[in-house]
Amino acid sequence: MVTALIDDMSWAQDAACRGLTHLFFPDHGDSRTGSAAKAICASCPVRIECLTYALDNHENTGIWGGYNSRERRTLNRWRRLARQQGLIE
Fold first, then answer.
1. Distance CA 9, CA 71 (A)
2. Which residue among 9, 12, 30, 53 is buried most deeply as judged by most CB within 10 Å?
3. Mean pLDDT, to the nearest integer, of 77-87?
4. CB under 8 Å to 46, separation ≥6 — which residues?
5. Tens-digit pLDDT profile for residues 40-68
6. How much is the pLDDT for 27?
7. d(Cα 68, Cα 27) in Å, to the nearest integer?
8. CB 24 within 8 A of CB 37
9. Of 78 and 3, which is predicted with more confidence?
10. Domain residues of the chain, as ranges?
11. What is the spatial distance between Cα 77 and Cα 59, in angstroms, rounded to a whole number?
C-alpha cells in the first residue's frame, strides 16, 4: 500500500513547487499567497499530473495543479458529467 502511494506521486520529484509547501496551503482568504502558488504552477512540467492526482484523490485543501479547492470541486463535477455522458472514461 505504501509503495503504491509513493508510485502514484513519483511525478512530485519534478514539481516546480518542491520545497515550497507553505505557498500551496495558504490561509483561508489569502489570495496573494494563492496567486503566487498558481504562478509557480503555470510553468510546472508536472502540472497535469499534479491536478489529476488531486482530482482523483479528492484533495480538499491547497493549490494543486494551479487550482484551489473550490476550482477543483467544479472540475470534478464536470468530470462526473462527462463520464455520465460517455465523453471520458
1. 21
2. 53
3. 93
4. 11, 12, 14, 15, 16
5. 999 999 999 999 999 999 999 999 999 99
6. 81
7. 12
8. yes
9. 78
10. 2-84
11. 14
